[in-house]
Amino acid sequence: MSMRMLSTRGNAPAVSISEAIAAGLAPDGGLYMPDTLPTFAPSDFDGDATLAQVAHRLLGAFFAGDVLESELGAICETAFAIEPPLRPFGDEGDYILELFHGPTAAFKDYGAGFLAASLAALPRGDKPLTIVVATSGDTGAAVGAAFHRKPGVRVAILYPDGRVSPRQAHQLGCFGDNVRAFRVAGSFDDCQRLAKTLLSDAAFKQDVPLGSANSISLGRLLPQACYYAHASLLHWRATGRALNFVVPTGNLGNALACFLAKRMGLPIGALVLANNANDALAQFFDGADYAPRASIATLANAMDVGAPNNFERLQWLESDAAKLRAALTAQSVNDDDIRATIVDVFQRHGEIICPHTACAVRVLQRLRARGVDGDWAVVSTAHPAKFPEVVEPLIGREVPLPTALAAMLDRPSSAEALVDDADALRERLRG
What we know:
Oligomer: single chain
Mean pLDDT: 94
């Protein structure tokens, strides 16, 4: 019997994992979660050396008995072909997990690649499936790259006009063919609300079949747990010690994936979330009531989220706020701290980091200053070359472009202007 996926809001039928991946959002507006989490010991992964092998083992428990079970190995080989380096970084006991070596130079390539390969393996009807994705910069490019020219699938990328970096904007609009980019007059939260409104519209979905590629999709979320499992196992095998993580987060998907990996028994120690000035999570973990708010623009733009979607999943996993605060902590980092950290890391260690990675590094620096010991990995979510207008003036040199990113930037790029209105988006997608 296959594992059941339940809505966080409890008013939708249980579905299989492939059905949850195809749907994106539950019919009651909730987010799908597995009814139970499997548990592992590090020894369960003996013989699994590569990221793809670890992913197959970890995700196999969720796909057992599912229509995609026989395809899972091939899906993992496709989505996890690039090994993310875990390497020493700076001072003794500090490490960096580089997740930006994929085609769009951001961590979201892993989840988007897994989702695309999963959907490609599922049967579909006569009408094309339209993937609606809200992005604060990196998600949309990863999804566009993963689904570009895939038969039977269209992609609609919604991004906040003027609130992503120029290179991110170019990436979002460079695909063409079956991928359309819409620059929305609003914030990321507005884009997210538009996507969720359409995904919750059963009547519209009858006319235009929809799916999601945001971290609201289990097909994006669960695969992200795999690189945390792999990195923690590498460290465990080398040292016999658990690896602690500082994860920069906006919509909470990447950090939640790490939390899930830890819950499943992987050798992960403490988990600390790094926010930018959009600090709803940091405020909550500091003891305040959870209070989503309008997002504000920062240098770490991919984290400019005022109402993180995945907080609903976190509360579903642990409804007791005190227990949640005991399991996780969070800190916020402002733009001045981001600038200072980029400069400090470059001057002291010769390393170039992006603004999002800088948030995590600054939090780790604070922890070390308080005397916190142990082995800690900061998670580097994007290549610094995606943010030259921020990074290059601070370090006084040009950041070399990764080959794949350079190829994207050489393509022509365009995006359609869109007002912040669900009916306007419905009209565009019917065309």
